[in-house]
Amino acid sequence: PDWFHWTRTSFTEASRPFAGLSDVSISEDIPVEGDISVPVGSSRRDEEFSTLDEPVKETILRDLRAVGNKFIHVLYPKRSSALLRDWDLWGPLLLCVTLALLLQGGAADNDDQGGPQFAEVFVIVWFGSIIITLNSKLLGGTISFFQSLCVLGYCIMPLTVAMIVCRLVLLGSSGTVSFAVRLIVVTASFGWSTFASTAFLADSQPPNRKALVVYPVFLFYFVIGWMVLTFSPSQ
Amino acid sequence: MASANDPFQFKEFEEAGSLLEANRDAVTISIQDEDVKSDKQRKAGANGYEEDPLTDDDSTQLLSGQKESAPFWTFEYYQKFFDVETHHVKERIIGSVLPWPGKNFIHVYLRRNPDLYGPFWICTTLVFAIAISGNISNFLVHLGKPNYKYTPEFQKVTIAATAIFSYAWLVPLALWGFLLWRGNKIMNLVSYSFMEIVCVYGYSLAIYVPAVVIWILPFEWLRWFSVVVALCLSGSVLVMTFWPTVRDDHPKVMVATMAAIVTLNVLLAVGCKAYFFSKPEPDLPVTKSTPTAGIKIPST
């Protein structure tokens, strides 16, 4: 209670710098399972629309809107923390599954010289982002584990788009021109992915370690870009 | 409640006193080795004296190199192997690529702060560099063959990862065990920890990344030249580092250890070159003259 704090702080004048410690209390309206940077505002918003009696369609649409909003943030990576604040893994899952499915049906799927299988793409994307996240945490990053996974997953989007473009180009022809077009598209989307993710991730690092965090991200998108570029359909 | 608060305060001051002890130690350490990082350490130590020592608790402890021994299942235990900054990693890579006679890699660059960042990411880079450039070189070799069908050869990544990571971890493990055994038998002043050996092996692989990229070009003399250069550089780093540990040993053991280190290095380099990069075929100039048929990547 308040009177208690009041009397305690007035008793011990010398401990005034530490008096603030006793005032820290977790208010009940902050969800426990969130991350530290969840502002009070988001929970207030949840109270405004009570989700109990709304139609299921609205609930799904709201989540879809949140995912779509994050896609826009990746496409236009200005340094805002919206992608970091409310993380979700729906978008990364969607993008990863789309990419892995599009990489199927490649050249020589039935012999052992083929391209990456569905599971391999899945493992590379998820284990790659987990390792990059652990790396940035070990280097002393201030970003939380799932925030980093969310950012890395959402930033695959340019490469997934590039994969769709590549498949469309490959429908037409598979000659030199087609390869040049695909090379340009994949290079551009690789640069975009790296730029977007570092715009979100690099700020969480001490300045003298930024390059150490950015390099694995670069390698990660480079490998995914390589998989997209070397995809060749079977005939 | 105020009486309950008093012991709390007293405890705080007690901790501050022990912290000053730690800081005093930190300053002596940073005076002893006055090379690269010591500026930062000294600054941190000085801050610890002047300002409230409680605020500098973590940073002084981290920077002074006095690691409290956290148990291995905690996150903090692994964090101390990633306590490097960009310029440290840069210096270490350059130091491993350009070895200098008389410069022991562990003594000059690691200085009791071995990291896992460099070894891990150098190995990962090398794995993908080998797989990707092996694939490109394979494509270039077969460029223009009418019945050649381009495939990404994704399984090369798995094989390269197995080879590189087992070299970078099992060889240091064996070497560490061996040196421990020899160190018990004879009086030896120089001994390395396991992490230091892993770190040296990881960084010694850095030179292979540019070498592997050169192997894309389908000229056999260029490939062998780069193999020899890379082998000399990375082998000399390893030999110069591990020479002091076996110098006082029996000559036979000394020669055998050095030979084993060099042989394993040669085996890795030559094995990778032979397995992942196919030889250019003799009819390459003939196919090169008909590039219009050759550039088709996916065969139809």
TrEMBL record, chain A:
InterPro entries: Yip1/4-like, Yip1_dom. It comes from the Eukaryota. It is found in: Golgi apparatus membrane; Membrane. The chain crosses the membrane at residues 87-106, 118-139, 151-173, 179-201, 213-232. Pfam families: Yip1. Residues 74-227 form the Yip1 domain. It is a multi-pass membrane protein. One of its GO terms (cellular component) is trans-Golgi network. Keywords: Membrane, Transmembrane, Transmembrane helix. GO terms for biological process: endoplasmic reticulum to Golgi vesicle-mediated transport. Belongs to the YIP1 family. This is Protein YIPF. It comes from Sphaeramia orbicularis (orbiculate cardinalfish). The lineage of its organism: Eukaryota, Metazoa, Chordata, Craniata, Vertebrata. The gene is yipf6.
TrEMBL record, chain B:
Coiled coil: none annotated. Residues 31-61 are annotated as: Disordered. It is a multi-pass membrane protein. It is found in: Golgi apparatus membrane; Golgi apparatus, cis-Golgi network membrane. Residues 96-269 form the Yip1 domain. InterPro entries: Yip1_dom, Yip5/YIPF1/YIPF2. It comes from the Eukaryota. Residues 49-59 have a biased composition (Acidic residues). GO terms for biological process: vesicle-mediated transport. The chain crosses the membrane at residues 116-137, 157-181, 193-217, 223-243, 255-276. One of its GO terms (molecular function) is small GTPase binding. Belongs to the YIP1 family. This is Protein YIPF. The gene is yipf1.
